[in-house]
């Protein structure tokens, strides 16, 4: 029995499960591409969304799009090779230390970097909404497009620096195609278990949960403020001067949307953090690794669903774009066809008269 079959996760040990896994991966690619391209089309093509919040949503969509373009297709290629030839590509049997042009040298940092970009972007979205809710009079002066653009650039640079830091600061860490997760993951380059090398990998869950924890706390504060404001509105009729110091209805809806994004991402990322900590403690958890990594990957197609459900303006604009695209792709009659049909109609009128 081939080595990759002996060490396979629950998803890929039988022919049926292999086929199901490939279909799932391809469907996920299509969902990621469709959802995030639609998000970019709405944000870039609609003046209403040319705001700091829109910039951040576009950044989040680009990060998710990169996962669908680069990360998942590599897994599809490896799994299709396994399904057709009953053996994995040669590079999957070696790590990046023994193969300089290993595909995981690129795919691993891209996946880790895009995940970190998603976390930092959700954190920035939460900060932006909290200012709009807690300090509505200062929103326009504090949150500007220029400052948001600078923060987006720094979030991408910082995230990808952190993604490659295990490879830069440790010679014992490599990248490999993991037979359990069916993805490119960080791993030890040798068979030993040096605690110092694994401690470097703990940077990921430590950084991620620090940001996620702060994001959750800020969301709780914002949602508590919104709830208190809603109670006041039930008991008091607001004057114009009062309403100017309160968050607008759109700010409240946006804050709830970002809260939903935070909840969804936290739920999808938590299994990965548990898996990394478990690996540091010496646990392999093969089947758990598969579900953990692909739950996180599936989150890349969820944001457009959240926007569509929570944001009525986004939903309306996305619907308009889809309808216009459908009309543009519908077959149109050529001038010749119209002339011929018109001539036939004229002949029928003459015959009737």
Automatic annotation (TrEMBL):
<dbReference type="Pfam" id="PF00001">
    <property type="entry name" value="7tm_1"/>
</dbReference>
<keyword id="KW-0807">Transducer</keyword>
<dbReference type="GO" id="GO:0001594">
    <property type="term" value="F:trace-amine receptor activity"/>
</dbReference>
<comment type="similarity">
    <text>Belongs to the G-protein coupled receptor 1 family.</text>
</comment>
<keyword id="KW-0297">G-protein coupled receptor</keyword>
<keyword id="KW-1133">Transmembrane helix</keyword>
<feature type="transmembrane region" description="Helical">
    <location>
        <begin position="106"/>
        <end position="127"/>
    </location>
</feature>
<keyword id="KW-0675">Receptor</keyword>
<protein>
    <recommendedName>
        <fullName>G-protein coupled receptors family 1 profile domain-containing protein</fullName>
    </recommendedName>
</protein>
<feature type="transmembrane region" description="Helical">
    <location>
        <begin position="200"/>
        <end position="226"/>
    </location>
</feature>
<feature type="domain" description="G-protein coupled receptors family 1 profile">
    <location>
        <begin position="35"/>
        <end position="307"/>
    </location>
</feature>
<dbReference type="InterPro" id="IPR050569">
    <property type="entry name" value="TAAR"/>
</dbReference>
<dbReference type="InterPro" id="IPR017452">
    <property type="entry name" value="GPCR_Rhodpsn_7TM"/>
</dbReference>
<keyword id="KW-0472">Membrane</keyword>
<feature type="transmembrane region" description="Helical">
    <location>
        <begin position="19"/>
        <end position="44"/>
    </location>
</feature>
<keyword id="KW-0812">Transmembrane</keyword>
<feature type="transmembrane region" description="Helical">
    <location>
        <begin position="148"/>
        <end position="169"/>
    </location>
</feature>
<dbReference type="GO" id="GO:0005886">
    <property type="term" value="C:plasma membrane"/>
</dbReference>
<feature type="transmembrane region" description="Helical">
    <location>
        <begin position="261"/>
        <end position="282"/>
    </location>
</feature>
<dbReference type="InterPro" id="IPR000276">
    <property type="entry name" value="GPCR_Rhodpsn"/>
</dbReference>
<keyword id="KW-1003">Cell membrane</keyword>
<feature type="transmembrane region" description="Helical">
    <location>
        <begin position="288"/>
        <end position="309"/>
    </location>
</feature>
<feature type="transmembrane region" description="Helical">
    <location>
        <begin position="65"/>
        <end position="86"/>
    </location>
</feature>
């Amino acid at each position: 029995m081939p080595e990759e079959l002996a060490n396979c996760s629950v998803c890929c040990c039988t022919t049926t499960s292999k086929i199901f896994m490939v279909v799932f991966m391809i469907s996920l690619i299509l969902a990621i591409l469709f959802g995030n391209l639609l998000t970019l089309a709405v944000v870039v093509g609609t003046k209403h969304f040319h705001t700091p919040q829109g910039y951040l949503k576009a950044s989040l969509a680009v990060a998710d799009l990169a996962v669908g373009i680069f990360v998942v297709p590599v897994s599809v290629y490896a799994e299709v090779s396994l399904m057709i030839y009953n053996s994995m590509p040669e590079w999957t049997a070696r790590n990046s230390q023994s193969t300089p042009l290993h595909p995981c040298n690129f795919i691993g940092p891209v996946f880790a970097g895009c995940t970190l970009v998603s976390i930092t972007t959700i954190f920035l979205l939460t900060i932006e909404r909290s200012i709009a809710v807690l300090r509505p009079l200062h929103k326009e002066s504090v949150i500007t497009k220029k400052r948001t653009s600078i923060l987006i650039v720094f979030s991408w640079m910082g995230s990808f620096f952190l993604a490659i830091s295990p490879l830069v600061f440790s010679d014992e860490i490599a990248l490999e195609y993991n037979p359990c997760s069916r993805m490119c993951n960080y791993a030890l380059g040798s068979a030993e278990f040096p605690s110092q090398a694994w401690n470097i990998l703990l940077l990921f869950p430590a950084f991620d949960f620090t940001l996620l924890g702060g994001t959750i706390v800020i969301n709780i504060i914002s949602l508590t403020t919104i709830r208190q404001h809603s109670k006041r509105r039930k008991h008091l009729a607001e004057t114009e001067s009062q309403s100017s110091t309160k968050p607008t209805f759109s700010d409240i809806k946006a804050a709830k949307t970002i809260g939903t994004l935070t909840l969804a991402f936290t739920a999808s990322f938590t299994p990965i953090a548990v898996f990394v900590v478990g690996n540091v403690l010496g646990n392999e958890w093969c089947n758990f690794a598969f579900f953990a990594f692909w739950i996180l990957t599936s989150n890349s197609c969820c944001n457009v669903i959240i926007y569509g459900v929570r944001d009525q303006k986004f939903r309306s604009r996305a619907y308009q774009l889809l309808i216009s695209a459908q009309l543009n792709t519908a077959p149109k009659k050529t001038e010749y066809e119209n002339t011929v049909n018109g001539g036939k109609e004229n002949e029928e009128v003459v015959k009737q008269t």
